[in-house]
Amino acid sequence: MYILQHNVIAFCRTNCTHRINMDSKLFLFLIAISPSLAVNVSIEGTLNLGKEFLDNLAERVVNSVGSSRRSMLPAQEDKITSMIRHSLFKATSDCENCSLYKFIEEYLIVITKTMRRVLNKSLGSQFIDEDYRNQVQEYVEYIKEVLLDSTDENKPSYWIVTIKIINSKFQQLILVYAEDDDKDLRHKLVLATVILENNYLNTLCVEHGVCSTKNKLSSALLSILSELTKAPYRKMKSFLRSLYEAVFETKFYSLMSDDFAHHLQVQFYEFVETPQRRILMDFQKILEDHLNGSVVEHTPRHVDLIRAILSDLDIIYVVQSSVPFTEFLESFYVFLKSDVQLNMPKILLEIQKVISALATDFFNKLYNQVQVLLDIFLSKVPWVKKEFVPM
């Protein structure tokens, strides 16, 4: 259980940085309201940060999956391809599931080249190719040890988590190359990894039959939304108000600047006071596509982020299924048919415990994706000043 125990739900050491030790980002809250509000303000999803580049990247990845996916790799090996293949030779040459090991090798090559392209276009002459290869070499060596040490390769979750671990490593490039105020580069790096991950996970399922089937959190959210969109208006509003109030019992808003937190609270409050069924139905459709494994062409960037976050949370609960979703759903159905109030803080705190137990790299991956999602959302609100830097 090397991957699942040590790379997904391993507890942070006591000397983790303050950023990692923050209790919980309350991802359920973010997932529940950010996409809804995003639809409400007509988010396009890229903040004009290289929209053409990111769209081209998405199209390139989508067009390359399936039988033509090999077109993403160079006809002639370059230094990056040679370095990765040489490093992973032992893991990919003496293997039981060689096609899957080769798939991981290819994913490493593609994400390495994609991130190199993002950095080269963004940094220009400041980007030094040799330094980048040395940095990536560390990530590749880590992935090699993961592949060699595991005995879980017959479990679908193993390959899904391996791709996510690769992404979590490459998102560390943000710390290496992006200054604190370089939001543009942070967004590009996160969105590039998200686009690649979503499409390669789909290919892993379609071509290799390795699919995520235990999607507890997404399934629970879909069940709730399916009922809410049909429920009386007063019940829908009551549920959202309970969620709004429960968030104040957490440390969520304290993780942001005062201005940013205030703006987010105002937007959430306005949505609670005048909830729109259409918005909930839009998010319901995102959940359905996620659970069905549907690939939608020209997906808005905020949808890519939401699906990546949902996928991360779903895989966490494959190996850490302590959140009582069944109990909460039972109380939710009682709530719909009576005047009984929901204990919303309880479910949020249970999710908080699971997220707080994540290994540092995986925690950072979620953190980065949620942060970009929030940046995208609030950047589209007219009265939010451009200089606001959240979190």
How would you portray this structure in words?
The chain has 391 residues and is mostly helical. The chain has helices spanning 2-8, 18-21, 27-40, 51-64, 79-87, 89-93, 98-123, 129-149, 156-170, 173-177, 183-208, 216-228, 233-247, 258-273, 277-292, 301-319, 325-337, 344-356, 360-379. 69% of the residues lie in helices and 0% in strands. The radius of gyration is 21 Å and the shape is globular. The two termini are 34 Å apart. Mean pLDDT is 75; it is low at 1-5, 9-50, 62-76 and 381-391.
Share in β-strands: under 5%
As a percent range, the share of helical residues equals: 55-70%
Average pLDDT, rounded to a whole number, is 75
Q: Radius of gyration in whole Å, from Cα?
A: 21 Å
The helix tally amounts to: 19
Number of domains: 2
What is the chain-wise order of helices and strands? HHHHHHHHHHHHHHHHHHH
Set out the fold topology.
Elements lengths: L1 H7 L9 H4 L5 H14 L10 H14 L14 H9 L1 H5 L4 H26 L5 H21 L6 H15 L2 H5 L5 H26 L7 H13 L4 H15 L10 H16 L3 H16 L8 H19 L5 H13 L6 H13 L3 H20 L12
Helix pairs in contact: 1-9, 3-15, 3-16, 3-19, 4-11, 5-7, 5-8, 7-8, 7-9, 7-11, 8-9, 9-11, 9-19, 11-16, 12-15, 12-17, 13-14, 16-19
Question: What tags apply to this protein structure?
Answer:
single chain; mainly alpha; 2 domains; 19 helices; 0% strand; disordered N terminus; disordered C terminus
Give a quick precis of the structure.
It is built from 19 helices and no strands.
